[in-house]
Amino acid sequence: MVQSAEIICVGTELLLGDILNSNAQYLAEQLAQLGIAHYYQTVVGDNPERIKQAIAIAVSRSNLLIFTGGLGPTPDDLTHSTIADYFGVPLVEHPEIVADITEKFAQRGRVMTDNNRKQALLPEGAEVLTNRAGSAPGIIWQPQTGVTILTFPGVPAEMKLMWQEVAVPYLTQQGWVTCTLFRRTLKFWGISESALAEKVNSYFDLQNPTVAPYANHGEVKLRIAALANSEAEALKLIQPIEQELRELGGADCYGIDHDTPAIAVGRMLQSAQMTLAVAESCTGGGLGAMLTSTPGSSAYFWGGVISYDNSVKVNLLGVNPDDLAQQGAVSAIVAEQMAIGVRDRLGTTWGLSITGIAGPDGGTETKPVGLVYIGLASATRVESFEHRFGGQRGREWVRRLSANTALDHLRRRLLNEGIINYY
Amino acid sequence: MVQSAEIICVGTELLLGDILNSNAQYLAEQLAQLGIAHYYQTVVGDNPERIKQAIAIAVSRSNLLIFTGGLGPTPDDLTHSTIADYFGVPLVEHPEIVADITEKFAQRGRVMTDNNRKQALLPEGAEVLTNRAGSAPGIIWQPQTGVTILTFPGVPAEMKLMWQEVAVPYLTQQGWVTCTLFRRTLKFWGISESALAEKVNSYFDLQNPTVAPYANHGEVKLRIAALANSEAEALKLIQPIEQELRELGGADCYGIDHDTPAIAVGRMLQSAQMTLAVAESCTGGGLGAMLTSTPGSSAYFWGGVISYDNSVKVNLLGVNPDDLAQQGAVSAIVAEQMAIGVRDRLGTTWGLSITGIAGPDGGTETKPVGLVYIGLASATRVESFEHRFGGQRGREWVRRLSANTALDHLRRRLLNEGIINYY
Q1: Which residues of A touch B312 (CB under 8 A)?
Q2: Which residue of B has its CA nearest to A285?
Q3: Do residues A345 and A316 lie in contact, with contact meaning Cβ atoms separated by under 8 Å?
C-alpha cells in the first residue's frame, strides 16, 4: 500500500449541512503542501457503529487517519471512545489533562463539570496531542503497525494551532514529509479567464512546476505550483516561469498571493506619496472598507463621502442639481462631479467615485441593473468609465465588482503616470 | 437496509484543498429539509479506480448516491464514464445534448469542440438531468434495484438549479420525501451564548421541535427545528416554542432567519419614517456597506462620511481640533462630535459614529487594540458607548463587531423610543 492519509470528519452537524467543512479544506491544503498523498475524505455522524465502519474502510486503504470533531464534553462526542473500542483497548484517564482543564476553567472563573472530565479519557497507549487554545486534547497513536491516528477538535482555530504546533513536527520527524509543494499565485484584473488562458496556453502542459488558471468574483488567477525537497529548490523552479508569466500578463497582472486590488493600489499610492478620497453611492462604503482592511492604509487613504441619497451628492460633494435632474444619479457626469467634489473637499491627490444600480430593483431599459459609472479625478484631469455588470449574479456581486473595478482604473492610471507596482 | 442517501464529491481540487466543499453543505442541508436520511459523505479524486471503490462502498450502505463534479469536458472529468464502467454498461451519445451544447456555444459566438461533445455521453439507460445554466448535463439512473444515482456538475450555481428544478420533484415523486424539516432561527445580539443558554436551558431537551444554540462573529442564534409531514404541521410545532423563546430573549432578540442587525435597524427606521447618517473611522465604510446591502435601504439610509484621517473629522464633520488633540481620535467626545456632525450635515433623524483601534498596530497601554467608541446623536441628545473587543481575533473581526454593535445600540435606542421591531 502506498503511504497515504485520509481525513475523517465526525459530526452530525456536517450531515445536516449546519456548517461548512472548512477543516477538510485546511487539512487537504496542508497535506498537499507537505507532499503527503491523500485520496479520500469521509464525513460521518456522531454514531459509534458508523464511525467504526468508517475506521475499518480507512484502515484498509490509508495509513494516516486524521480525525476532526467529536472531542467535546457532551454525550454525542464519541471519537476517542469509538476509536478505542475499534482497536480493542480501554480508555484511561490522564490526570495532567484533568489538571489542565480545571486550571483553564478556573482562569475563566468557572468550575469544571464531570462532562469536561470526560475529555481526559484517551485510548490506552495514545500520546496526548496538546490543545493550548481549548479544553479538548487530541491524540497521536499507532494502534497497529502501519496505522497512525491523529485527532483534532472540530473548532477550526484549535485544530489549526494543534496541527501547526504538534502534528507538522511529528509528521516531519516520522518521515511523512518527503517534499514540499510551494505555490505562487499571480493575480489579474481586467482580463477574462479564457483570454488569459489563450495567452499562456503553452504553460498548462508543464509538469513541475504546474500552471493552472482559476477565476472567481471577476478576478483571474494563475497558480504556479512546484514540488521540491526544499522551499529554495521549489523557488528555483517557479521563478523563471513566474517571470515569463508576469511579462505576458503585462498591466493586467496586479499582484501575487494575498494581494487584492486595494492592496496593489495602496502600495502604489504609498510609494508615490499620494493620497486618495472616495465618493460612494451604490457601494455604500464598500470601497472604503476594502481600502481600510489593509493595516497602515491611513498613510494614503484619507476617507470620503457615502452619498447614497442625492441630497448628499449635492450638499456634501457639490454635484450640480441640474445635471443630477437631467442625467440622473447614475451617469458619467455625476460620477465625474462626485470624484472632483470629494477630492477638493478632502484635499487628496486623487478622487475616486462610484455611482450605479446594484439592483435587484431600480433598473430601466436604458439604465439596467448592473450599470455603473466610475469617476477618477486628479487636480488637472477628470475621467469616467461606464460598466455593465448585469443583474444575474445579484446585488453584492455588482457592488464588489464595482469597487474592485474602480480600484483597477486607479491602478492603471497610476501605471500610466509612471508609478511602479512593486510586487 | 434503511433508505439513505450518500453524497460523493469527485474532484482532485478538493483533495488539494483548492476549493471549499460548499456543494456538500448545500446538499446536506437540502436532504435534511426533505427528511432524507444521510449518514456519509465521501470525497474522492479524479481517478477511475478510486471512484469505483467509492461507488462499491456507497452501494453497500446507501440507496441514493448523489455525485457532484467530474462532468466537464476535460480528460480528468470521469464521473459518468466510471459509473457506466462500474455497472457494466456502455456510454451512449445523446444527440439532443450535442444540439443543446452546440446552441449554447453559438449564443456566445463560439464553436463547440470535440471535448465538449464528450459531455453528451451518458451511461446507457440513464435519463438526462437537464442543466439549464451550463453545458454539462447530469443523470438520473437506477442501475440496479434499490440503487438510484443522481449526478450534478461541480459548479455550485448549476448544481443548485438542477437540484431544485429536477431532483427535488423527482425525489418527491419517487416517495423519498416523507417529511419536512422546517427551521426557524432566532437571532440575538448583546448576550453571550452561555448567558442565553442558561436562560433557555430547559428547551434543549425538547425532541420535536429541537432547540439548539449557535454562536459566531459575536452573534448568538437559537435554532428551532421540527420534523413533520407538511410545513403547516411543522409551523404548528414551532410557533408556541418560538413565542416563548422570543419572550425570554426580550430586547436581546433582534430578528429571525436571514435578518442581520442592519436589516432589523432598517425595518424599524422605515416603519418610523426616520433617517440615518453614519460617520466612520476604523470601519472605513463597513457600516455603510452593511446598511446598503439591503435593497431599498435608500428609504432610511442617506449616507455619511468616512473620516479616516483626522483632517476629515475636523473639516467635514466639525470635530473640535482641541478635543481631538487632547482626547485623541479614539475617545468618547470625538465619537459624539462625529455623530452630531454627520447628523447635522446630512439632515437625518439619527447620526451614528464609530472610532476605534482596529489593529494589529496602533494600540497603547491605555488605548489597546480593540478599543472602540460608538456615538449616537438625535436632534436633542447625544450619547456614546465604550467597547473593548480585544485584538486576538484580528482587524476584520474588530471592524465587523464594531459596525454590528453600533447598529445594536441604535436598535435598542429605537426600542426605548417605542418603535416596534416587527419580525
Answers
A1: 302-303, 346
A2: B285
A3: yes
pLDDT digit string, tens, across residues B248-285? 999 999 999 999 999 999 999 999 999 999 999 999 99
Size of interface A-B (CB pairs under 8 A): 237
Q: Does B49 touch chain A (CB under 8 A)?
A: no
Tell me the C-alpha to C-alpha distance, in Å, between residue B140 and each of A286, A313, B127, B148, B163: 43, 55, 5, 7, 11
The total of other beta-carbon atoms located within 10 Å of residue A72's CB is: 21
pLDDT digits (tens, 9 = 90+) for A32-73: 989 899 999 999 999 999 999 999 999 999 999 999 999 988
- Taken in order of first residue, the domains within chain B and their CATH numbers are 5-173 (3.40.980.10), 180-256 (3.30.70.2860), 261-416 (3.90.950.20)
Q: Rounded to a whole number, what is the distance in Å from the CA of B352 to chain A's nearest CA?
A: 13
Closest approach of B250 to chain A, Cα-based (Å): 26
Cell of B30: 437540502
Span A280-292, pLDDT tens digits: 999 999 999 999 9
User: How big, in percent rounded to 5, are the helix, strand and coil portions of chain B?
Assistant: 45, 25, 30
* Range 335-374 of A in CB contact (< 8 A) with B: 345-347, 358-361
**CB-neighbour burial class of residue B88 (10 A; exposed 0-12, middle 13-18, buried 19+):** exposed
Q: Do B284 and A301 touch (CB under 8 A)?
A: yes
Cβ atoms of A166 and A140 within 8 Å: the answer is: yes
Query: Which 7-26 residues of chain B touch chain A by CB within 8 A?
Result: 14-22, 24-26
**Backbone conformation region of residue B204, classed left if phi is above 0, alpha if psi is from -120 to 50, else beta:** alpha
